[in-house]
Specification:
Number of strands of chain B: 20
Strand order of the largest sheet of chain A: 1-2-4-3
CATH class of the largest domain in chain B: Alpha Beta
Largest sheet of chain B: 7 strands, mixed
Strand order of the largest sheet of chain B: 6-7-8-9-10-11-12
Radius of gyration of chain B: 21 Å
Strand content of chain A: 25-35%
CATH superfamily of the largest domain in chain B: Ribonuclease Z/Hydroxyacylglutathione hydrolase-like
CATH topology of chain A: Translation Initiation Factor IF3
Largest interface: A-B, 14 and 17 residues
Distance between the termini of chain A: 16 Å
Number of strands of chain A: 4
Helix content of chain B: 25-40%
Shape of chain B: globular
Oligomer: heterodimer
Distance between the termini of chain B: 46 Å
CATH architecture of chain A: 2-Layer Sandwich
CATH class of chain A: Alpha Beta
Largest sheet of chain A: 4 strands, mixed
Strand content of chain B: 15-25%
Number of helices of chain A: 2
Radius of gyration of chain A: 11 Å
CATH topology of the largest domain in chain B: Metallo-beta-lactamase, Chain A
Number of helices of chain B: 11
Number of domains of chain A: 1
Shape of chain A: globular
Amino acid sequence: MEATKVLDAKGLACPMPIVKTKKAINELALGEILEIHATDKGAKNDLTAWAKSGGHELIKHEEENDVFKFWIKKG
Amino acid sequence: MAVKAMTSNEVTKKVFNKEPLFILDVRNERDFADWKIEGENFDYYNIPYFELLDGVEGILDKIPANQEILVVCAKEGSSLMVAEMLSEQGLTASYLQGGMKAWSEHLEPVKVGDLNDGGEVYQFVRIGKGCLSYMVVSNGEAAIIDATRMTDIYLDFANEIGAKITHVFDTHLHADHISGGRVIAERTGATYWLPPKDATEVTFEYEALEGGNVVTIGNTAIDIHALYSPGHTIGSTSFVVDSKFLLSGDILFIDSIGRPDLAGMEEDWVADLRESLYSRYRELSEDLVVLPAHFMIIDELNDDGSVSEKLGTLFAKNHGLNIEDENEFRKLVTENLPPQPNAYQEIRETNMGKINPDDEKQREMEIGPNRCAVR
């Protein structure tokens, strides 16, 4: 899966991961993919709910060494 | 207008005093539905903070213009952002300091009664989660029962009133919250008591708490009589303190009774639970003041914020004590149970000393309501 852009939101606390994700998604074209790295534990629930309400698609997420990685396709 | 922080302590006072408050909860809808700040005169509106990133104009018609507004989120950051946005619109908004994380950990000490020799019993109300713990004080000595993991609060409190903690008890192996009992005992040199039938897998030393044990606090005879009352767990033990108070653990609550399923043994333990509630408790004085280890709903709080009721009153009013038919009782406590507490197996393992999660992980494991009862 090829991400168009990678957003590093590590070390940021809520609400900043979502604030930055929203900004980054705005700069992408429809169908492009944003990869996000975050360490905030609430990020998973919030990103999932935010993507859904904004019509975007969370296509994959994984956890690696306490870093949460998400791939969101702009919808 | 600047926004100010409201502490859990201030919110607790509003709950106790039945004051009005408008809560704008900006967590996810699922989190809000699962668990929120409860108050008799609180009103709510829930919208996730990420719906408000472009502004709060869209929700202004949902929010009263002439009332104090408290914005609440999981940890604080988002509620501060939203409170500032509301303030820019001319509203009076504060945010909950430390968020629901702090709310879950807040303990409010309330005196629930005097002992015959001048000692006192204090109840520590964990208002956000519904857990109740106790300190019995007499002649400079103190016993703690069902402590939470916020151990500093008990140590500081004992220090302030000039009491030395000599005994620490858990009425049973808890599944809804992490016990602070062992840590308090280690830090004070107090004796840590656990019912041995609940402690078969623990990895640490403890004193075996069994029915008939009598532990004396202070110089004069403030006795804590242990009463074996299985049902919520196989080891569950109640205490009669100073022939006046009945600490009922997770067996009997004000408006509900314990559930026997959290160790996966509901069918085996139903008969024990019934025996404890319908026979053993029936032999006790109806004048005993019942002090449970939980409350479920805010209506169970007395006017001073404490949670207590005479045993005789509970025999008359508590539905769970008034089910004649054994099959009906079995159904109540084994069928259609509320969801189990968050991470309850991990919490049990932590309380056995099998796993040692860090503070952040412990906090996360305890998120949400306690759910130890059936009504």
